[in-house]
Automatic annotation (TrEMBL):
<dbReference type="Pfam" id="PF01066">
    <property type="entry name" value="CDP-OH_P_transf"/>
</dbReference>
<comment type="pathway">
    <text>Phospholipid metabolism; phosphatidylglycerol biosynthesis; phosphatidylglycerol from CDP-diacylglycerol: step 1/2.</text>
</comment>
<keyword id="KW-0808">Transferase</keyword>
<feature type="transmembrane region" description="Helical">
    <location>
        <begin position="7"/>
        <end position="24"/>
    </location>
</feature>
<keyword id="KW-1208">Phospholipid metabolism</keyword>
<dbReference type="GO" id="GO:0046474">
    <property type="term" value="P:glycerophospholipid biosynthetic process"/>
</dbReference>
<protein>
    <recommendedName>
        <fullName>CDP-diacylglycerol--glycerol-3-phosphate 3-phosphatidyltransferase</fullName>
        <ecNumber>2.7.8.5</ecNumber>
    </recommendedName>
</protein>
<keyword id="KW-0472">Membrane</keyword>
<keyword id="KW-0594">Phospholipid biosynthesis</keyword>
<feature type="transmembrane region" description="Helical">
    <location>
        <begin position="86"/>
        <end position="106"/>
    </location>
</feature>
<feature type="transmembrane region" description="Helical">
    <location>
        <begin position="118"/>
        <end position="136"/>
    </location>
</feature>
<dbReference type="InterPro" id="IPR048254">
    <property type="entry name" value="CDP_ALCOHOL_P_TRANSF_CS"/>
</dbReference>
<dbReference type="InterPro" id="IPR043130">
    <property type="entry name" value="CDP-OH_PTrfase_TM_dom"/>
</dbReference>
<comment type="similarity">
    <text>Belongs to the CDP-alcohol phosphatidyltransferase class-I family.</text>
</comment>
<dbReference type="InterPro" id="IPR000462">
    <property type="entry name" value="CDP-OH_P_trans"/>
</dbReference>
<keyword id="KW-0444">Lipid biosynthesis</keyword>
<dbReference type="InterPro" id="IPR004570">
    <property type="entry name" value="Phosphatidylglycerol_P_synth"/>
</dbReference>
Length: 169
């Protein structure tokens, strides 16, 4: 379904290869600008989906994939460069992959996928801030990432609890 929010999400997919090029080429300032644009488009697409009543099932699927793609690319790169501790990145990535897998399985079973809840939103904001801080070489980026990771794991447990309740019904 063509909607303005979905178009913004597709733009995030287009940004990723350019972002990755600048990231691995150590043009961190340019990468930070592209990451910031992706983050703003994420906020904007969610806002417009609600404001224009253009929420769609497609959007609920592709939006988190676009988010996870740019964040995942960044965090794996940061782990390899030892910008963020690799073990923490592994925990984050495994949790995200697990959530994608569970979401996909529920989608196949026809179970409605819930929208992002507050813990997930806080986790995403903190993770994005930590990534931008690291790209701009602002101190304490690892600490902000750790707090974001805590919220991310908590959000994962919150979703798991929700889906277990749905399965019991």
């Amino acid at each position: 379904m063509f909607t303005i929010p979905n178009l913004l999400t597709f733009i995030r997919f287009i940004i990723v290869p350019f972002y990755f090029y600048f990231l691995v080429s150590n043009y961190y300032m340019t990468a930070a600008v592209l990451y910031g644009l992706a983050a703003v488009s994420d906020i904007l697409d969610g806002y417009l989906a609600r404001k224009l009543n253009q929420s769609s099932e497609l959007g609920k699927i592709i939006d988190p994939i676009a988010d996870k793609l740019i964040v995942g690319v960044t965090l794996v790169f940061f782990a390899f460069k030892r910008i963020f501790p690799p073990i923490l990145v592994i925990i984050f990535v495994l949790k995200e992959l697990l959530m994608l897998l569970v979401g996909f399985l529920f989608l196949l079973k026809g179970i409605k996928i819930i929208s992002s809840r507050i813990y997930g939103k806080v986790a995403m904001v903190l993770t994005s801030i930590s990534i931008l801080m690291a790209l701009l070489q602002i101190p304490l980026s690892v600490l902000v990432f750790i707090v974001g990771l805590f919220f991310s794991v908590f959000a994962g447990l919150d979703y798991l609890y929700y889906y277990l309740k749905v399965l019991k019904k």
